[in-house]
Amino acid sequence: MDVYQPDLHPILYEFNFTEAISSVTNLASGRGHKAQGRDRTQLAYWNPLQPGLAIWGVFWTMIFILFNGYQVFFEWNTQNFLTAYINIPIFFGLWIGWSLYMRQPFWRGEEMDFVTVCLTASAFANMLAHSRDSQGIPTIEETDSPEEPPRNLGEKIFNAVF
Asked: How far apart are CA 44 and CA 58, in angstroms?
């Protein structure tokens, strides 16, 4: 009796593209910080292994994307090939199409804005409540709300686990 095994190739591809673009975005942000003479060690989430980790991430996710469906080349099957690799042209087609449609240029490092930020309504209200004369990106203290203590046994267990 055959058991149905779902094909996870599309899900894995989307995860790989997401990880690759996240790493590319990190590299671009680092380029912008360097071009503007900003110190990345002053950021809330700074890692001394950057940009090496981002380059490592781009390299390995590209390897995973390209070799994820390598089995199809040993025994050719057009359906399996399309299943394994159709997401590559779809991704780049959507990305290039969106860029052309919206006429979005790539920002140079000097043009990147690290000062102003578009806040959600709740974050903006929280920022205003803590600091009326704040300019630019709020600090972590300005946006974080105090942690509420657990009220019952279920919340205590939840806090202990997570």
From this structure: 23
Which residue type sits at 135?
Q
| CA atoms of 16 and 24, how far apart (whole Å) | 12
Q: In whole angstroms, give the CA distance from residue 89 to residue 100.
A: 16
Number of domains in the chain: 2
Residue 31 shares a structural domain with residue 100: yes
Torsion 122-28-67-73 (CA) sign: positive
Please answer whether residues 64 and 88 qualify as being in contact, where contact means their C-beta atoms are separated by less than 8 angstroms. Answer: no
Same domain, 124 and 108: no
> Is 133 in the same domain as 155?
yes
For 116, residues 6+ apart whose C-beta sits below 8 A from its C-beta are 136, 137
Q: What is the pLDDT of residues 102-112, one digit of tens each?
A: 887 888 888 88
What was the pLDDT predicted at 113? 80
Same domain for 156 and 132, yes or no, is yes
| pLDDT score at 133 | 53
Return the higher-pLDDT residue of 127 and 84.
Answer: 84
Query: Are 109 and 119 part of one and the same domain?
Result: no
Domain region containing 157? 115-162
Please check the confidence at residue 127 and state whether its pLDDT lies above 90: no
Separation CA 35–CA 30 (nearest Å): 9
